[in-house]
């Protein structure tokens, strides 16, 4: 085998890897990308049930109710709200009035069924997406705990 | 006084690094022995000064000197001593100081142990290493000074994030940094070689031990972090594809590729340009990781604070280092052409395929990690890229990699005999299918997912073939048994290392498969006296004690009894802790392991009726994930002790190589 042939093999292998990887990434992305919305963005969109979503905002004061291991609460961005149900153990940092991100699917009755609830590991900060969304809706007060 | 000493030492270290990065470089260009020789004392002095600064910060933590802002923000007098010490790197400023400490440690190690290196290469490598130091010392002094004072000093500090107050996590950052900062050495050697325009087998032999050491440390660091996540986050998971996990995993993938391509350079003098490129990319990914963590642009457990100025600084550093070195590579790569020829089916071919797959994986993980940032910048909406994405790209790339990994060591250099190799592996294939079938039947036949059997088959394929290759190498069957120990002792250590590392990988794959496919998970509300069946165990909640005092927290502790067939096998005590400073809850899972699986118990919130939410898991083979990593690291260590890498050996080998060429 000559150098030229070997180089050809290298290039072919590289192209194959690149093409394969691109195809993989594209298919993976179309199936698995999870979009983030706030409750007010949700209100303006018609999103079919079944699509995985992330919803972020604050846990509304006084909205948390537990029944057995199922929890219901309301996520608010201070403009719109969205009812959420979740079965399981909430993260340690889950609190009323604090930032939260819920990942799951929209049910037909308009409630959001979360399969995962994330509260930021650091209570000084809220999830970045939530803070950005609050800033956008003009309800963010710099430095003050909401 | 002590903080000022630390600060002064840091400034001196910066000046020394400036000298070290310029004079030896000029000296090497002019062949001025005296100027080149300056690199050695400078590297040692730089390490000593940074160590003094680090020691100063540590003493501030140990004595709880609250006139130092960094200590106020991250420490508290109540904290146990271990966490006062680990608190030094449990924050942004301190961890950057640890970063440069390790950077200079590698420099000092090369200065001390690299007596046999050609003076030009050594001077240039140390100068490049010092250039990186200059960048990061400036970063610390300008944007993140750990020694800033506060006046008046508060009576006590804010404490350390309780999640970080854990023995597993206390030593996770140092190992992680030993790993990914360690790749700076391969990078410095690569740049030095590009400046010289010469890469040969001897070069690869000098670079390999440093890469190997960094790789082993990084493997251990990642495993420790994963283990910590497994037992403290309380979800029974051990890998989340969190951006910062990815930040350490990408250099690992790239570094693993580098480790293997350096073998090809060393043995066959081929793939030289590619190896240099990998060295550059690996360290660039380490820097990118630092940028992602430090800038806080990605939300993560690890982001200590977000400060745009810091992000911009690290981004600039990343741009200069990566851009500059790639530019240099573009100019000089042409000179590196040539080297040994090989057929596609050969040891080199298999290693090249390994490299392509690892590099592709690293690239795909990189894309997934950065995609939310890209989408945000292009206004495509806020997206998150989670485990489903990474699993979807990771598996199709890893499965062929592992399949090739088992065959590669059976192929000869230059031109391999695939049919022959597969013939020798027939028995392994049959055995691994048998193991997979057995595991599938044990786990309930059609009730268990088919891919799990595939995963176990893959793990056995790799594991058994690694053992077979080892057995053939030491002529287990072909030669009399009485010389066996001598043959094992005489065989190159690096070969034993490879066997161990590949076998460790097989153990980890089995662990990942088992814990993902056959996990049993039970979430429910339990009252005292309730029992729940988990896999083949029965777990009974006996009682819950509240308000138990700890050193700096109060805990609720549940008392579970685990029984199997009516026999008590373990008492399990999961806790929920409420820390005082900062006030925060953490979960302490109780884990009972029999090495074949983990019984994993977490206690959650009480409900109004006196019950507790509990999460009970049985994770089959979960301990193997971490056990496999430890075996891989051991393999790295054994390989590192190979004669060829001992000091003095490279010179003799080098003259042999030039003699032949």
Describe what this molecule looks like in 3D.
The complex is a heterodimer of chains A (146) and B (661). Chain A is an alpha+beta fold. Chain A folds into two domains: 1-32; 35-136, Nucleic acid-binding proteins (OB fold (Dihydrolipoamide Acetyltransferase, E2P), Beta Barrel). Helices cover 30% and strands 29% of the residues of chain A. Chain A has three helices and seven strands. Chain A has helices spanning 3-32, 39-43, 128-136; strands spanning 34-37, 53-59, 65-67, 70-76, 81-87, 99-106, 112-118. Chain B is α+β, with helices and mostly antiparallel strands and 661 residues long. Chain B has four domains: 1-157; 196-409, no CATH class; 417-517; 520-620. In chain B, 63% of the residues lie in helices and 12% in strands. Chain B has 22 helices and eleven strands. In chain B, the strands form two sheets. In chain B, strands 3, 4, 5, 6, 7 and 8 form a six-stranded antiparallel β-sheet that branches. A four-stranded antiparallel β-sheet of chain B has the order 2-11-10-9, with helices on one face. The longest helix of chain B is centred in the first third of the chain and has 32 residues, at 201-232. The N and C termini of chain B lie far apart (59 Å). Strand 1 (34-37) of chain A pairs antiparallel with strand 1 of chain B, so a sheet runs across the interface.
